[in-house]
Amino acid sequence: MAAKLQPSAPKPRHLGGAALDGDGPRGQWGRAWEVDWFSLASVLLLLLFAPFIVYFFIMACGQYSCSLTAPLRDLAAGRVRLSDIWARTPSLTKEAAQIYALWVSFQVLLYVALPDVCHKFVPGYVGGVQEGAVTPAGVINKYQVNGLQAWLITHLLWFANSHLLGWFPPTVIFDNWIPLLWCANILGYAVSTFAMVKGYLFPTNARDRKFTGNFFYNYMMGIEFNPRIGKWFDFKLFFNGRPGIVAWTLINLSFAAKQRELYGHVTNSMILVNVLQAIYVLDFFWNETWYLKTIDICHDHFGWYLGWGDCVWLPYLYTLQGLYLVYHPVQLSAPHAAGVLLLGLLGYYVFRMANHQKDLFRRTDGRCLIWGAKPKVIECMYTSADGRRHHSKLLVSGFWGLARHLNYTGDLLGSLAYCLACGGGHLLPYFYIIYMTILLTHRCLRDEHRCASKYGGDWARYTAAVPYRLLPGIF
């Protein structure tokens, strides 16, 4: 669910192995070395239109009660001009700038200046200093994993303010929603531009860079693999997890507070959205160490799609359900609410258990039980960039015997539950499931393209054993 904007994957020059900068072998690790016309077109379209998509959704709620078609009809009929819509849009304010600067500074402080202590007394939680995966240049970065601690501190302060301190109203995020959007855009473009300049002039590791010769692709997809400042401030981990995902639950709480202020109560649909999305956010931080081995950290470079995407796209479009429910409070029937809750919990269960099975299989090298039995595997081999042959195993038991990406299927079920909580009155809250379906299907194909290149004929044996990608018996 925390997946970000992703353009179409470029075609690789070579198969298998790791990609190194300079004169090293140019493998498929990370993003492309060269850009085909389709990938470049995708990049240009996203750079041009993604900011306007976010603005359109937020504007539609503020000015057209969340209708996506009403502003288009008004423009087509000449009843309104673009300049009229823009004139009604709140501008950047000093208050919003102060709020946002304080928010980001506080999250930076929690990230770099407060080492994790949760792992010392919370059973089962893995935090503190952890190692990431090997980078293309052979570097193993260390990370200060303290996202759960940052989330807990932030939310304890939020509730203390709401019930005891009264420094600011709990509706403060909603009340400054569009002015905060301009602040988020400023930070997103600033950090993306800084990462681009840093990649050229003072990289953290020069061998973990990629250049295509195309400015727009380099800007969007990033040059550096793991840009850092100092020992602990890792751009990729910070912006992937903080400030956007920590803010996600605060944003929903502010929307719920606004609903109560406007209507005198909080609807069960708003409660469902808050609870189900909070489960996902907490899962993310509980498993932050596991996240260090995911595609975002292990393969993606840091550019605009992560920098801007984490600052703007994620907090503004992943929270559309709560925003919609402020303008259109929905009180679900008991069976409808129960169905949404069960679907959301089912999606989370499949998502979490599928990932748990894979993680258990990897940690024990297959010496474990999956659904009470010894796991079935496909033995395979691959060649790394240095020419060495390696043995590996692909799991074909449990959820991974039903479909090759059933963790994504669980993710999609949870995403659908968020949307169904909003009823069927408008299309806007369903953008999330449409977007996630496109993104995760693309990511599924991207993963498989990399694996086919890496494992060759062994991957063909695996796909024969597990023929479906996301939906058993269908796709």
From TrEMBL:
<keyword id="KW-0256">Endoplasmic reticulum</keyword>
<dbReference type="InterPro" id="IPR001171">
    <property type="entry name" value="ERG24_DHCR-like"/>
</dbReference>
<keyword id="KW-0752">Steroid biosynthesis</keyword>
<dbReference type="GO" id="GO:0033963">
    <property type="term" value="F:cholesterol-5,6-oxide hydrolase activity"/>
</dbReference>
<keyword id="KW-0472">Membrane</keyword>
<comment type="function">
    <text>Component of the microsomal antiestrogen binding site (AEBS), a multiproteic complex at the ER membrane that consists of an association between cholestenol Delta-isomerase/EBP and DHCR7. This complex is responsible for cholesterol-5,6-epoxide hydrolase (ChEH) activity, which consists in the hydration of cholesterol-5,6-epoxides (5,6-EC) into cholestane-3beta,5alpha,6beta-triol (CT). The precise role of each component of this complex has not been described yet.</text>
</comment>
<keyword id="KW-0753">Steroid metabolism</keyword>
<dbReference type="Pfam" id="PF01222">
    <property type="entry name" value="ERG4_ERG24"/>
</dbReference>
<keyword id="KW-0444">Lipid biosynthesis</keyword>
<comment type="similarity">
    <text>Belongs to the ERG4/ERG24 family.</text>
</comment>
<keyword id="KW-0560">Oxidoreductase</keyword>
<dbReference type="InterPro" id="IPR018083">
    <property type="entry name" value="Sterol_reductase_CS"/>
</dbReference>
<dbReference type="GO" id="GO:0047598">
    <property type="term" value="F:7-dehydrocholesterol reductase activity"/>
</dbReference>
<keyword id="KW-0812">Transmembrane</keyword>
<feature type="region of interest" description="Disordered">
    <location>
        <begin position="1"/>
        <end position="22"/>
    </location>
</feature>
<keyword id="KW-0521">NADP</keyword>
<dbReference type="GO" id="GO:0006695">
    <property type="term" value="P:cholesterol biosynthetic process"/>
</dbReference>
<comment type="function">
    <text>Oxidoreductase that catalyzes the last step of the cholesterol synthesis pathway, which transforms cholesta-5,7-dien-3beta-ol (7-dehydrocholesterol,7-DHC) into cholesterol by reducing the C7-C8 double bond of its sterol core. Can also metabolize cholesta-5,7,24-trien-3beta-ol (7-dehydrodemosterol, 7-DHD) to desmosterol, which is then metabolized by the Delta(24)-sterol reductase (DHCR24) to cholesterol.</text>
</comment>
<feature type="transmembrane region" description="Helical">
    <location>
        <begin position="415"/>
        <end position="440"/>
    </location>
</feature>
<dbReference type="GO" id="GO:0016132">
    <property type="term" value="P:brassinosteroid biosynthetic process"/>
</dbReference>
<feature type="transmembrane region" description="Helical">
    <location>
        <begin position="302"/>
        <end position="320"/>
    </location>
</feature>
<keyword id="KW-1207">Sterol metabolism</keyword>
<comment type="subunit">
    <text>Interacts with DHCR24; this interaction regulates DHCR7 activity. Interacts with TMEM147.</text>
</comment>
<protein>
    <recommendedName>
        <fullName>7-dehydrocholesterol reductase</fullName>
        <ecNumber>1.3.1.21</ecNumber>
    </recommendedName>
</protein>
<keyword id="KW-0152">Cholesterol biosynthesis</keyword>
<keyword id="KW-0153">Cholesterol metabolism</keyword>
<comment type="pathway">
    <text>Steroid biosynthesis; cholesterol biosynthesis.</text>
</comment>
<keyword id="KW-1133">Transmembrane helix</keyword>
<keyword id="KW-0443">Lipid metabolism</keyword>
<feature type="transmembrane region" description="Helical">
    <location>
        <begin position="37"/>
        <end position="58"/>
    </location>
</feature>
<dbReference type="GO" id="GO:0005789">
    <property type="term" value="C:endoplasmic reticulum membrane"/>
</dbReference>
<keyword id="KW-0756">Sterol biosynthesis</keyword>
<feature type="transmembrane region" description="Helical">
    <location>
        <begin position="332"/>
        <end position="351"/>
    </location>
</feature>
<feature type="transmembrane region" description="Helical">
    <location>
        <begin position="177"/>
        <end position="201"/>
    </location>
</feature>
<feature type="transmembrane region" description="Helical">
    <location>
        <begin position="262"/>
        <end position="282"/>
    </location>
</feature>
